[in-house]
Amino acid sequence: MSKLSHLLSGLSELFKFDNPVALFVNRLFFRKQGLTVYRCKGMDILIDHDGGDQHGTRACLTGDMYSRYFKWLPRDRPLRVLDLGANGGGLALSLAAEGFKLGQLACVEMNPNTFLRLHFNIHRNLGFSGIRLLNAAAYKEDGEIVVSLGKGSTADSIYGGGSSGHSATLPTKTLNTIIDESLGSGDIDLCKIDIEGAEYDLFQGPCDQLAQAKLLVIEIHPHATHTPESLVSRIKQLGFNELQESCTTDGTCAVHVFQRN
Fold first, then answer.
1. Is pLDDT of 24 > 60?
2. Which of 26, 95, 98, 247 is the most buried if burial means most Cβ atoms within 10 Å?
3. Packing angle between helix 20-29 and helix 3-14, nearest 10 degrees?
4. Calpha distance 152→52 (Å, rounded)
5. Which helix (DSSP H) or strand (DSSP E) does residue 23 occupy?
6. Are 190 and 213 in contact (CB under 8 A)?
């Protein structure tokens, strides 16, 4: 896509929000102003264009990045949701925008700068007692890891940030630890995992409690020493059937959807 086409596409997305004129003026004449508040169905959502939120949080609300999978979720009761690689909270905000009620919500985001926006977006718009937000990296063991991170990027991972930044020492948590500390026992209606290649490390650690999830949506990336097929096999060993695989537009990774047996 050319730079002009990309600009026009981005501007057209603004008119899907409740304050399109203000957003249009801001993005057309004040493009160096990174932080912008987008209004959507009564929600005030903080987007940092310098941190790439337009490709994550905003894209969740203007497209069907995750809403295409909502057809497998119940609408007759509050949901319990686990989001690994939560970015600015796009998944939870999309659920709210689509009319779903949330009973418990656990979000894990490792970039401290992105986490601040996640914290604002979730607590301002969805504030309830069942929220657990964790600034940590989902990993194969509990401990710490040093990662170079910038203002934020949808490409942030334990292998490095999507933009230049400073080194940060972050806590690491296994999948079992995250579930224990944030949701406890009981069914998890939806677990989303998008951690930019670190999913292979995550599943090398203790992860049997993922079997609590009824629906798993995971983005699987290419890896130097592991194959996507090996990870799919590992997930099936935990008691899941694969419902759907859909390639992303750039063809470098695929989103897989699993349902618990």
1. yes
2. 95
3. 150
4. 6
5. helix 20-29
6. yes
- What tokens does 242 get? 């694969």
Annotate 71-83 with three-state secondary structure: HHCCCCCCEEEEE
Whether the CB-CB separation of 159 and 137 falls below 8 Å is answered with no
Query: Taking the chain, what is the end-to-end CA distance rounded to the nearest angstrom?
Result: 41
Cα radius of gyration rounded to whole Å, the chain: 18
What are φ and ψ of residue 196, in 5° steps? 55, 55
The full length of the chain comes to 261
- Domains of the chain listed by start with CATH number: 64-260 (3.40.50.150)
Q: Name 134's bridge partners.
A: 108
The amino acid at residue 200 is Y
Residue 222: how many CA atoms within 13 Å on its side-chain side? 7
pLDDT (tens digit per residue) in 63-92 = 999 999 999 999 999 999 999 999 999 999
Dmax over CA atoms of the chain, in Å, equals 53
Residues 6 or more apart in contact with residue 34 via CB below 8 angstroms: 48, 49, 50, 51, 151
111-122 per-position pLDDT tens digit: 999 999 999 999
Place of tokens 């941190």: 51
Our measurement of the distance from residue 156's CA atom to the centroid of its chain's CA atoms, rounded to an integer in Å, reads 11
| pTM as predicted | 0.92
**3-state DSSP assignment of residue 64:** coil
Token pair for 172: 């690491």
